Amino acid sequence: MSQLPPDPVVALTPDPLTPNRDITHAHFQAGDTVIVLKGVAGGELWGDAMRVVAPSWHLSTDEDGWRLRDATGGQQSYITAHPRYLVHLSRRCPDCLIHLRAMEDVLLPKYPDGNALIDCGWYTTTAVGQLVHVDDARAGR
To answer: Are strands 44-58 and 86-88 parallel, antiparallel or unpaired?
Structure first.
């Protein structure tokens, strides 16, 4: 898993796994380091690495979420995300490893070019700092 490379190509790709992922709020704890998988770079998955900071209500799903801090900053250093969007980096837990492997099985064969930087276009950030998967987006939010 790699950090976001500069200037990825956006290639809208269906995400058949994350929207149906059954992961609870309790799976993550404040202090965990996580990644939000966003695409493929150099023949492996990449995304945004962040630190779980505190519980936070995720408005877009009306469920418990997590406040995340992006240590590299950017336009928004803090966002709120639903737990199903997250994969542990700080520890090797079976649930996250299974999800990671399944994502690799789906995505890596679609983008075999090892030099391609692909953003699958799954996420956007709302005006109130909520990270939202395209399948969780609601009209008017």
So the answer is: unpaired
- Structure-derived torsion over alpha carbons of residues 136, 137, 140, 141, reported in degrees to the nearest 10: 80
CB neighbours of residue 30 within 10 Å: 11
Q: Contact, 9 vs 115, CB < 8 A?
A: no
Q: Of 50, 57, 75, 24, which Cα lies nearest the Cα of 130?
A: 57
pLDDT in tens, 40-81: 998 899 999 999 999 999 999 999 999 999 988 777 789 999
Contact (Cβ atoms closer than 8 angstroms) between residue 102 and residue 122: no
Residue 4 amino acid letter = L
Closest CA to 99 of 2, 15, 7: 15
CA distance 76 to 8: 19
